[in-house]
Amino acid sequence: MKNVLGYQGEKVVITGAASGMGAAAAKLLTELGAEVYALDIAQVSVPVAKAIKVDMKDPASIDAALPELPDEIYALFNCAGVPSPPFSPLDTVYINFCGLRYLTELLIPRIKNGGSIASIASTAGMAWRPKLTQVNEFLALDSSFDAATKWMAENPEHCAEGYGFSKQCIIIYTMSMAKELAQKGIRINCISPSPTASGFMDKLKGEGQMPDDAIDLFLPSNGRYATRSEMGDPLVLLNSKLSSFVSGQNLPVDYGYCAEVFMGQRDDLLGIAK
Ligand SMILES: NC(=O)c1ccc[n+]([C@@H]2O[C@H](COP(=O)([O-])OP(=O)(O)OC[C@H]3O[C@@H](n4cnc5c(N)ncnc54)[C@H](O)[C@@H]3O)[C@@H](O)[C@H]2O)c1
User: Fold this and answer.
1) 55 Cα nearest atom in ligand 1
2) Residue 140 to residues 90, 136, 152: CA-CA distances in angstroms?
3) 271 CA distance to ligand 1 centroid (A)?
4) Residue 175 carries which DSSP code?
5) pLDDT digits (tens, 9 = 90+) for 200-215
6) Count of domains observed in the chain
7) Is 5 part of a structural domain of the chain?
8) Domain of residue 128, residue span
9) Ligand 1 pocket member 18 (CB < 6 A)
10) Which has the least CB within 10 A, 40, 69, 134, 137?
11) Which atom of ligand 1 is nearest the CA belonging to 197?
């Protein structure tokens, strides 16, 4: 049963490892014996093999990190993300999705057969079905940030709030890439967390942007926020060899919040059951 998760001695790349869910996942990965390469705009305190300053909204910054990353990678964890507000819709989509896709596509050729990718979406992206046509149109653009900027300016009705759209993009991108990646022996999945105590939540609540009682509407029936490890752990599980036949999935990690909505047991405030 030693090395049951398969990370011992493996090289993994993780964004957003300076705090929150990414820091929790990075810490667990180091404890499991992985060689961890962390990309973040902020200082990383987990004792990783290498921490590299990267701004996920800047493709040149991502490009500059590439020579510092290993030629062969077992797993990629896409954890970096911000809320809007306080971030602008454009910056939010850049950081949460455009940067994520840009990095992922640069690293796919380095991910080995049997490797995998796991990203963090959100409950806020769960209403992806009614937006499938528009998001697919956005995903069909070339992956340049300029193309994204132009599309967002021309289609504000679909992306003006920024955050939900960025997370719908992650969910649909994850499902869309599963076929191509399966042919390379690579898996791809994402999780959709319910409200979690983290720096993200502090930013979302900061300066009264979103009051506690508005966020409480999205808490599961256990009545509490998740901890950052309660999101980091399932991410590590999804990218581990215990999940070796799991791909193309968006896993709600929400103590049953979405299940309650789908079963009509609570109001569908986000339209996720449509
Ligand atoms: N906290 C929640 O309630 C919640 C719920 C659903 C989804 N999420 C998602 O979870 C992910 C992790 O967030 P968290 O809750 O752990 O918050 P967090 O703020 O603690 O962590 C986010 C990390 O992303 C990094 N980051 C932010 N902007 C960056 C940039 N431009 N370039 C590089 N790194 C950058 C931050 O420095 C930080 O380390 C995010 O994608 C967020 O959208 C959070």
Assistant:
1) 32
2) 18, 6, 13
3) 24
4) H
5) 888 888 866 788 888 9
6) 1
7) no
8) 11-262
9) yes
10) 137
11) 1
